[in-house]
Amino acid sequence: MPKSGEDAIPDPESWGVSAGDARELLRHQMCPICGRGPWKLPLNHVALKHGIDKFTMRDICGLKVKESVADADLSEASRQRAAAQDKTALHEAHKQGHGKYRVTRAGAKGKADGTAGVDMTALRDRAFTPEALAKRSDSWRRTWEAKSPEAKQATLDRLYEAKKPSLRPCGTVAAYGRGCRCDLCRAAHTAYRRARREPGSARDSVAPDSPADNRHAL
Questions:
Q1: How far apart are CA 107 and CA 104, in angstroms?
Q2: Where do the segments described as Disordered lie (predicted)?
Q3: SS3 content of the chain, % helix, strand, coil (to 5)
Q4: Highest-confidence segment of 30-39, 84-93, 203-212
Q5: Nearest 5 degrees, angle CA 108-CA 112-CA 115?
Q6: CB-based contact 30:37 (threshold 8 Å)
Q7: Could you count the other beta carbons within 10 Å of the beta carbon of residue 188?
Q8: Is 74 in contact with 28 (CB distance < 8 Å)?
Q9: What confidence score (pLDDT) does residue 137 get?
Q10: Which of 216, 215, 218, 194 is nearest to 205 (CA)?
Q11: At what angle do helices 19-27 and 54-61 cross, to 10 degrees?
């Protein structure tokens, strides 16, 4: 593809048109070389089909680098035609979306007629009636009695470990769920975390007192 300044600039007379005629053809989105068109981007057609880059073509037609090639009236007509297009179908298809927030047809119908969630509410109400609670209690009791002594002991040990208090020393700086849960340690831990969240506080701020200094009788 020839570049501007390197090879001789083609003469528009060889195409059978003058420079002014070539400029007018470009403004109407027609190719000044082969006369075909209209092209949405006539300079791209000239570059790809005829091997003349857009800067050379602008020099031939007397157009500045940033000057619009298309005619102003033609551009306005294209703009009005695009604005008059009905894009309802496009927008509706976009609003349908995909993924977890997409509303199903049944869900949309339930919201429209006001029945969404009614079935679940009725199921919850039936699940917590005295009869349903007694039935579940009997089922749990039968399940427990059917277990072997080893399985019962394993279940009891697991429940005991879950309810057993933390063996960490009082005042240990750890995650809230693993540290001491007494009132004094909770207050110290809260003050320490609030100080860390204050703007301008250093990341290496002083932690609460050591476990040895903060121990107290429970």
A1: 5
A2: 90-115, 193-218
A3: 55, 0, 45
A4: 30-39
A5: 90
A6: yes
A7: 19
A8: yes
A9: 92
A10: 194
A11: 120
Rounded Cα distance, 183 and 169, in Å: 14
Residues 6+ apart with CB under 8 A from 118: none
User: What tokens does 196 get?
Assistant: 């860390």
Most confident of 41-45, 139-143, 169-173: 139-143
Residue 68 has φ and ψ, to the nearest 5°, of -65, 135
Q: Please report, as a single letter, which amino acid is at residue 60.
A: I
Q: If you search the block for the tokens 């119908």, which residue do you land on?
A: 109
Give the DSSP letter of residue 208: S
**Closest by alpha carbon to 210, among 158, 173, 179?**
173
Which pair of tokens denotes residue 134?
Answer: 């007694």
What's the one-letter identity of residue 113?
Answer: D
Give the CA count within 13 Å in the CB-facing half-sphere of 118: 7
- Helix (H) / strand (E) containing 30: none
Specify the length of the chain in residues.
218
Rg (CA), the chain: 40
Per-residue pLDDT tens for 131-154? 999 999 999 999 999 999 999 999
